[in-house]
Structures are given as structure tokens and as C-alpha cells.
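User: Continuing from earlier, I have the next pair ready.

Assistant: Great, send them over.

User: Here they are, in order.

Assistant: Folding the first of the pair now:
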Amino acid sequence: MYIILELLDDHQEQLLDILQNYFRHAATYNPDTADAGSTTYFSKVGIDFIVESVRAASELEPTSPLFSRHVNVLQSLASDLRDLPEDPEAGPSLDYLFFASFTYANRLLLWDSDMITTETGRDLILAILQYRGHIIPRKDFEDGFYNSSYPGWTFDNDWSSFVDRARVLGIVVPSLAQEPPADLPPLESTEIHEKPDHPSGDAVVEVSHGHHSSIRSSSKIDDE
């Protein structure tokens, strides 16, 4: 795995092709509970692929044509995460895509990637928050993603810090009693919101995006 990614450091276009294909498959990957956690998609090798891909993609300069390719990958992720059936039980689960997208976006934040602060990167963060507010992902998927990876690495800890970083980018996560924002704040007016006004356990409750115009959520997501 590491040898492949080292070779791709100078061939980011091929890396983006592989990454896009991986996420396309993630959008349709819905194994039975008995199989979750027993394939490479839940193995440490699979997680390492996501982490190392972030490292390589974060080196792309905003002026590079490949930066735009990376934008397209993130746009597809956000779009797929919002492509939910009206009845979550009626269609295939997007839970694996949620965990893969969350891991990727969270690592982009940790790397201070130029990509994650763009409108596209911030929209992906919002789509991830919306998904988690609408659906409780399968526990076996969570276990498969985290138990086989790094010691002490837990979803709850990652999610809490992810929500905090979203606030720093101006992506407000209001409580249910508040009116939700109609759109992301302009990049030039992004500001940090005080934590007491926005408890870390609350989730985005409504955003207008095409035919998915309203997404309701439950509060205290960090405690679930």
C-alpha cells in the first residue's frame, strides 16, 4: 500500500482516478452484517489508503488543474450523500460512504488542506453533518471502520472534534430550537461561533439543496 502511494506522489492524476473509483464503489457497498468488517474495505489497509490519499491530494496547489479534479471528487461525494430515499429503509444504505467520506474530510481538516476551506470542501462537511443528523449509521460499519484501524481511534471522539472544526469554518450546527441557515456563510465573512450558543451535540436540521430540501435531525448526536 505505502509503496503504491509513494509512486503516486508524482502521479496525482492516477491517484485521483483511483480515489474516485473507490468512492463510487463506496456509494453502492452495502454488505450483510456478517460480512461487515471482514473485507479490505474495513481493514487497516483500506483505512490507510484513505489517510495516505489525503496526504498526497493535500499537496495539490490551488492553481493546478488537478486541484479542480479533486474538487469534482468532493462534489460527487456531497451529492451522493444527499441522494437519500424518502424512506431510509427503502433503499441501499449509504453508511459505508458516510464513514469513508467522514474519514476523508476529517483528515483534510487535520492536514489544513486548501481544498477543505473551499466552498466545495465546506459543502462536503455540511453534507456529512446532514447525513448524520438524518440517519444513525450501522453500528457494525462503525465497528468495522474503527476496530481494525488505530488504537484509541473512536468515532465519537472524531465526530466531536469534526463538529467543532465545522464551527470554526463558519458551518453553524444549530439546535433544533433555532432557525437553520439557508446556505453556507460567504467565505469572506466566516467567523467562529461561541460554543455555548451551539451545543456540540446538535446537528444541522434543514438545508436547501435541490430535491433534498429538508433534512430533519435529532439532537445530542455526540452522545449516541
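And the other member of the pair:
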Amino acid sequence: MWDAISSGNFPEWDLCLQLFTEEEANGFDFDVLDPTKLIPEELVPLKKVGRMVLDRMPDNFFAETEQVAFCPANIVPGIDFSNDPLLQGRLFSYLDTQLSRLGAPTSSRSPSTRRSARCTTSARRHMQTAVPQGRIAYEPNSLAPDGARESSERGFRTYPRSEGGGALRVRPASFADHYSQARLFYVSQTEPEQNHIVAALVFELSKVEAPAIRERMVGNLVNVDTGLAARVAAGLGLPKVPAASPTTVPAKRNPTPSPALSIHLKAKPTIEGRAVGCIVTDGVDGAIFDALKKAVTAAGAKLVVIAPRSAA
């Protein structure tokens, strides 16, 4: 990434949103507040709202990266918090996290975290990254009648949604389908991607020493895809494929594949901005190497040479 940015091949991504109403969400066959679930693009198409480009590296890695202190509780007018239980927990915990990491409540004023839009506050705390002027350290006050004041018209306003029922510490029944989306993901992958998934599962589970845990994990995979489970069981040397693990909600048997979930199917047919590795050794044909480098460069990529010795 450093080489790409330095050479002007800036990495970039489309910034997209999936927008839907609460009524539409109630019609989905999964709970949108379940953080383990995704919303298929075929169900709710992506709406492009911008582009994100990395066009420079940090001037000081510690100041601009290690001291980043983002917090999901910091939002702008126009949006509000959902009842996602994972989000609700992080709204509470992230400020404590940043206080622990950086030792001060002024982390929101550090150069890499502060707001792009000007925001005036009279709050003054220890370990300042700014240099406040004047005597005012609180609001409201009588010493600066023209100073910053909270505004109910221009400030943040909570979305006036209606809530009903009791607040309970329980997991909704709509969270109980643990396998349908896992099956959807697996059947949406190309054959090479499925091979990678199998290899990764075999690699990771081979490090598990307790045979019962290996069998239990493969039993979970049976609920996802029997072919996947059989290949992983064979890779682990299990004598047979274990029975499917008990599940409250069986996975949907024949989901319609989602091409948007496959990296291969979504990849653009280009090597522009990429690095192409070239293994060379003594006796390499210089003409072939030069032709390869010229072709890779013409396609907008960079040729990286891998050799047994460093070049002079």
C-alpha cells in the first residue's frame, strides 16, 4: 500500500449504503439487528454515495494512527442509534476504551480524530491538545454571554421513534437462525474460493487437540453444507462425518446464490494498481524479464522481483 500511494496508484473504494424502512426490515427473514447477519445486495441494492481514496501516508505514524480514538457515540445530526445490541454495548464502552488507551478525555481533539466541521465547546480537561483562550471553562455562564450555547434547533436531536414492550436482557428468537446465511455465503463462492474455505478450516481445526471439539465443529458445518463438512472431515482424518449439530432453526436448504458475496465474481479484470511477483534466479533470460516488466508496467501494475540475492 505504501508503494502504491507513493507511485500515485491511490487505493480507492466506493462508499455505498443500503437503505430500507423499518417496515421493510420487518419483512426480511432475518433480524437486521443481529450483528452476525448481512443484508444481501440482491435484497437491498447498494446506493453509492461517495468514494474513499487513500492519497497520502501518515506524516507521523504514532500521532496519526496509534492515537486515533474513534467512538461510535460521536454522530452528526440526521442519524441516530439503532437497538443493535452490539452497537449499544460499544456506545457505552468505547469512551472508557479511549480513556484507558490515551489517558485523557481530550482525545476527540487530536489531529486525526477531531471533527472536520468546527465545533465549539467550553470544556477544558487535563492533557489538552488545544490551547483554549479566555476564562470560560463551562456552559452556561455569565462571563461570556455571546459565547457558545447549546441549541435545540441547530444541535443534535434524537429521532422521535416509538418504542413498545418491556426492556429485557434476552436474545430475540429472530436471532436463532445461525446457519442460513453461512450456507448462502458458501454456495455463493466460486470453486477456488470454496477450496480456500476448506483449506482454511482444515488448517485451523488441525491445531485443535481435543477430537470431540473437532467433531463438534464439523457437525456445525453439516448444517451449512454437507459437501463442505465431508471435505473438512476428510482433511482432518475423521473416520466419518459427524451428525449435524442440534439447531433451533434449520438452515434454508436451497438459497439463491448471491454473486455479490464472491470476491472473484466482483473483481475487475485488471491488474492496475497491483503488485506482480516475479521469481528469478541465476541464468534468467534478460529479454524475457524485460518484456514481462514492460507488460506489467503498461498494465498499470508494479513488478516485484524475488531473488536469492539482493541486487547490487
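Worth noting for the second one:
Strands lie at 12-17, 47-53, 275-279, 302-306. The CA atoms of residues 71 and 95 lie 7 Å apart.
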